Amino acid sequence: MKRFIYDFTFEDWKQWMLDHGEQSWRASQMMDWLYVKRVHAIDEMTNLSKGLRQLLEQEFAFTTLNILAKQQSGDGTVKFLFGLHDGHAIETVIMRHNYGNSVCVTTQVGCRIGCTFCASTLGGLKRNLTTGEIVAQVLMAQQFLDETEERVKSVVIMGSGEPFENYDATMQFIRVLLDERGLNIGQRHITVSTSGVVPNVYKFADEKWQVGLAISLHAPNDALRSSLMPINRRHTLAELLDACWYYLRTTGRRLTFEYALIGGQNDKLEHAHELGKLLKGMNCLVNLIPVNYVPERNYVRTPRNHIFEFKKVLESYRVNTTIRREQGHDIDAACGQLRAKHNQSKESK
């Protein structure tokens, strides 16, 4: 199978050009065609020689994402279900904020982490995405926004899958995002989320980027976290927090902890006190998330007034806390929901 043309960074293109008897500055032309002009075919790269275009055709394929479904919310949120070359499907979301448009990308087809409140894990992990398949999601979102002369301002790597279990492709993707000749997204406008793959939290800290890191926490103790997130049996809460402290010391960046509030499970005030004691003194932000309804999970939401009480307890420990603004509530908002519906529909045929 040919490599995807979006798999390469600028440095990769420089080396490829040199390896094939071309001048290294041709790499800048490739980046311009792919990310500024956003062409759809190698033949459109008219300032490249015919021989070079033929060589590119032999070795590379444009990453094909077919729109299987598109849902648009009343608040402007747009969710795409993209079909991949091998018949699998993934989700990508455009979220509109007062500070600009954000794109949430997926890094895996499915997920093996097994968080009990998440639709992404239904059916398990099928495969990792390539760098090009992740990059193409942002390009497809940008092409959609081009119609109204808008642009992608920020990217969150929080879609289906565990980015730190597809670490190399995710880091390569971030390099393409950061490159001013590429997608040119600022480091502070990118956030990657992990459920807590501890060795790669250390590895990510050592990248020494100013890219944001969000940790899916969802419980203040090992017993509860292990019941909600099986990854905690691999990497305990204490091990995860040690890695978080390393990240804070190494980067000087604030950490975000995501905490999905599930009625009757992890939302008691005693949990808030436990969480406050756990995180007190850390340079962090806790993002409280009312859990999305997933039919297969049968979890219920924490009442709104109780969410504010939970927040107040955390703030008594001087832990910065926000409540996530809900978007796309009138469409299949939760990660994996649209894909799960698509898969059920395929199986029923």
From TrEMBL:
Record field: catalytic activity: adenosine(2503) in 23S rRNA + 2 reduced [2Fe-2S]-[ferredoxin] + 2 S-adenosyl-L-methionine = 2-methyladenosine(2503) in 23S rRNA + 5'-deoxyadenosine + L-methionine + 2 oxidized [2Fe-2S]-[ferredoxin] + S-adenosyl-L-homocysteine; adenosine(37) in tRNA + 2 reduced [2Fe-2S]-[ferredoxin] + 2 S-adenosyl-L-methionine = 2-methyladenosine(37) in tRNA + 5'-deoxyadenosine + L-methionine + 2 oxidized [2Fe-2S]-[ferredoxin] + S-adenosyl-L-homocysteine
Enzyme Commission no: 2.1.1.192
Compartments, as annotated in UniProt: Cytoplasm
Active-site residues (renumbered): 91, 335
Keywords, alphabetical: 4Fe-4S, Cytoplasm, Disulfide bond, Iron, Iron-sulfur, Metal-binding, Methyltransferase, rRNA processing, S-adenosyl-L-methionine, Transferase, tRNA processing
Pfam families (UniProt xref): Radical_SAM (PF04055), RlmN_N (PF21016)
The Radical SAM core domain, residue ranges: 97-330
Sequence positions that bind S-adenosyl-L-methionine: 161-162, 193, 216-218, 292
GO molecular function: 4 iron, 4 sulfur cluster binding; metal ion binding; rRNA (adenine(2503)-C2-)-methyltransferase activity; rRNA binding; tRNA (adenine(37)-C2)-methyltransferase activity; tRNA binding
A GO biological-process term: rRNA base methylation
Highest taxon of the lineage: Bacteria
Record's protein name: Probable dual-specificity RNA methyltransferase RlmN
Native source organism of the sequence: Polycladospora coralii
Upper taxonomic lineage: Bacteria, Bacillati, Bacillota, Bacilli, Bacillales
Gene: rlmN
